[in-house]
Amino acid sequence: MDSSKIIGVDPAKTVFQLALADTHHQVKQSRRLNRKQFHAFFVNHPPAQVVMESCGTAHYWARVLMSLGHTVTLLPAQYVRPYVRRNKTDRSDAMAIVEAARNREIKAVPVKTEYQQALQSLHRVREQWKTTRTARINTLRGILREFGVLVPLGPSQAIKTTHEALDTLPAFLQPAVNDVLNELSAIQMRIAALEKQLKQIVKEDVVIQQFMQINGIGLLSATAMRASVQSPGQFRNGRQLAAWLGITPREYSTGNQRYLGRISKRGDKYLRTLVIHGARSVMARIKYRQQHHQPLTYLQQWANSASGTIKPLWHWQVRWLASSGRPGCINVSLMETMLYSNVN
Fold it and tell me: Which of 107, 216, 251, 268 could form a disulfide with 282 if both were Cys (CB 3.0 to 4.6 A apart)?
């Protein structure tokens, strides 16, 4: 029976490449298995450290292998790529994974639970429906424009305007446009039903409820954060979380010259977008409360004093905050500040 202590796995749909190594990360053997053989191999193998890239199906197999008594480590794929030598093959990838596991500076990706992946899948489905809805509305907008009808922004207004202008279109075109309208109505109902399902999930999840107590974090942001972040404990502070989301300045420095540019835009684009919109709502709320002479929260006071004025120049604000040396000014963006003051 093989007793390898470290096993690098390059997973695929039907084929799995294994690199079997000793405790010194020296690869002693390579094996190529199908799905059935892969599962049987680890059922009969003594407990070992299994290292995989954090890619498709990796979290599923990590849960399966952990249930069999193995220790599983998931590494970010972009950090494994530099260890690939010569040509890119499954064998080279598996060996690179073993080599990357030696680098303690590479932080492992926490294994997601089934609950997290199911929650994230709901968001992915909702985004696909939104994309389809936008495509159909743009089609209607282009068609009606050729007949002198301007479709306003927003899905509800677009559907309403199209319904009102339907009778003015040529008779043989009306059935096709009506089919598109029916499809849009069905998509609207699906999105509404999915959001209702998310609200039900919030009632049963205390962590999401805590997320929603943060200014600017609503239903979508809280549930998306819950699906992406295994535990707030994986970040030492809010700045690490902000850097993981890609809303901290990109640094390009050498010697005594330091340059902090725009936000790095690393990490989950979808989650970053939700957080940025949440920060914008916080800034917009400041203006509303000032106009109605309502007191500001501590976070709103800080953001208002740091930005001076409320402008939609978010990249400019990031550079300004990052380069300012004013006492008490944290060198991060307003979006990071929203998280920094609530996640520790």
Answer: 216
Average of pLDDT values for 96-114?
91
Q: Tell me the three state secondary structure of residue 53.
A: strand
pLDDT per position as a tens digit, 227-237: 988 777 788 88
- Which pLDDT tens digit goes with each residue over 13-49? 889 999 999 988 888 899 999 999 999 999 999 999 9
Per the structure block, which two tokens stand in for 300? Answer: 């709103």
Whole-angstrom CA distances from 273 to 111, 201, 222, 223, 224 are: 23, 22, 13, 14, 11
How far apart, in whole angstroms, are the C-alpha atoms of residue 252 and residue 273? 24
Residue with structure tokens 């209702």? Answer: 196
**Residues contacting 110, CB < 8 A, separation 6+:** 74, 230, 231, 234
d(CA 133, CA 122): 16
Ranking 126-130, 261-265, 321-325 by mean pLDDT, the lowest is 321-325
Give the 3-state secondary structure percentages of the chain, helix then strand then coil, rounded to 5: 55, 10, 35
d(CA 330, CA 194): 38
